[in-house]
Amino acid sequence: xxxxxxxxxxxxxxxxxxxxxxxxxxxxxxxxxxxxxxxxxxxxxxxxxxxxxxxxxxxxxxxxxxxxxxxxxxxxxxxxxxxxxxxxxxxxxxxxxxxxxxxxxxxxxxxxxxxxxxxxxxxxxxxxxxxxxxxxxxxxxxxxxxxxxxxxxxxxxxxxxxxxxxxxxxxxxxxxxxxxxxxxxxxxxxxxxxxxxxxxxxxxxxxxxxxxxxxxxxxxxxxxxxxxxxxxx
Length: 233
Prior knowledge:
This protein has two domains: about 15-95 and about 175-230, no CATH class; about 105-160, no CATH class. Helices cover about 10% and strands about 25% of the residues. It has helices at about 95-100, 130-135, 140-150, and strands spanning about 15-20, 25-30, 35-40, 45-55, 60-65, 100-105, 110, 155-160, 175-180, 190-195, 200, 210-215. The strands form three sheets. A five-stranded mixed beta sheet has the order 4-3-9-10-12, with no helix packed on it. Strands 5-2-1-11 form a four-stranded mixed beta sheet, with no helix packed on it. Strands 6-7-8 form a three-stranded antiparallel beta sheet. A hairpin with a 5-residue loop joins strand 1 and strand 2. The longest helix is centred in the middle third of the chain and has 13 residues, at about 140-150.
């Protein structure tokens, strides 16, 4: 299988991107929609979906807080200049497929890259995504496996059609969402959807994927990506 099947194909160089500024915020270049989505739960407290909570005005360029100290979140207010924030990028930059393990079901393949987990929990819906994949000869369980994997904002889980080997992704247009989870105390990871290019402080680009989540609490051990540390903030 081609590694680039797990990266967003770009027919042309897009006029938008997110740039990581040295020890500073994320700079959104280009008019990308920005909103806040809230995690909703079932009666057992398991995440089941997102709902739109707020939309922000579209602007050509915006600075989004990365250090966790802004008093005007999600926007940067310069707090990183005096709170000791160190924004060194420490994430593993290997392509997704290089470290993903494979779960093979009767009618579905699930790829899983555990180091991308942000512990949000959609994968525990209806049992769990892995067991649903192993029982994907049942059409209902296959559908649930695909849905729960697609709800994983970090792209840890990627469902693939077993016959074609191609990822099954929602056709999201490029959009930036802040994930509002009531279980946390106000640090909302940034969810990049639809293949938004992410540029490093050194000018290079990360693999452009359908779904990734960025740290906004300043405590991730895998910067710039979220690793769930905001749940301990």
